[in-house]
Amino acid sequence: MKNLWNKYKQVIAYLFWGVLTTVIDIAVALVLYHLLPNMDVFWNTLIAWVASVLFAYFTNRKWVFESKANTVKEYITEMISFFLGRVASLILEEIILMIGVSIISENNFDLLKIFAQLVVIIFNYFWSKLVVFVNHKEK
C-alpha cells in the first residue's frame, strides 16, 4: 500500500489541490457577485480565475511538485510559465468546446465540457511537471 501511495502521491496531491482551486474560483466569483452585483461577468470571471490560478501556483509549487526554486528570477520564471500554461489550457478548452459543439451538437454540451475538463486537467498536470517545475529540482 505504501508503494502505491509513493507512486501516486504527486497525482493525488495534484487532484486534491485542484479541487480546492476550483472551490476558490467559485467562492471568489460568488463573493464578487454578491458584493458587487453590477460587476460585469467578464471581470468577475477574470478576477476569480486569476485568484484561483495564483492559489494553484503556490499549492502546486509547494505541495505537489516541491519546487526547489530559490531566486527571484526562478520564482518569476516559474510563475510566468505556470500562467502561460493555464492560458494555453483555457484556449485548448475553448477550442475543444467550439469544435465539439460544431461536430457533435450543443445537445451534448455537458459531455463535451466534462471531456474538455479532463483534457485540461491532464494538460495542466504535464505542463506543470514537465515545463514549469522541472528546472530547479535539486540544487
TrEMBL record:
Predominant cellular place of this UniProt entry's protein: membrane
A Pfam family this chain is assigned to: GtrA_DPMS_TM
Protein name (database record): GtrA/DPMS transmembrane domain-containing protein
Subcellular location: Membrane
Record-linked InterPro entries: GtrA_CellWall_Glycosyl (IPR051401), GtrA_DPMS_TM (IPR007267)
Family: Belongs to the GtrA family.
Source domain of life: Bacteria
Membrane topology, as annotated: Multi-pass membrane protein
PANTHER family: CELL WALL TEICHOIC ACID GLYCOSYLATION PROTEIN GTCA, PROPHAGE BACTOPRENOL-LINKED GLUCOSE TRANSLOCASE HOMOLOG
Lineage, uppermost ranks: Bacteria, Bacillati, Bacillota, Bacilli, Lactobacillales
Keyword Lipid metabolism carried by entry: no
A GO BP annotation: polysaccharide biosynthetic process
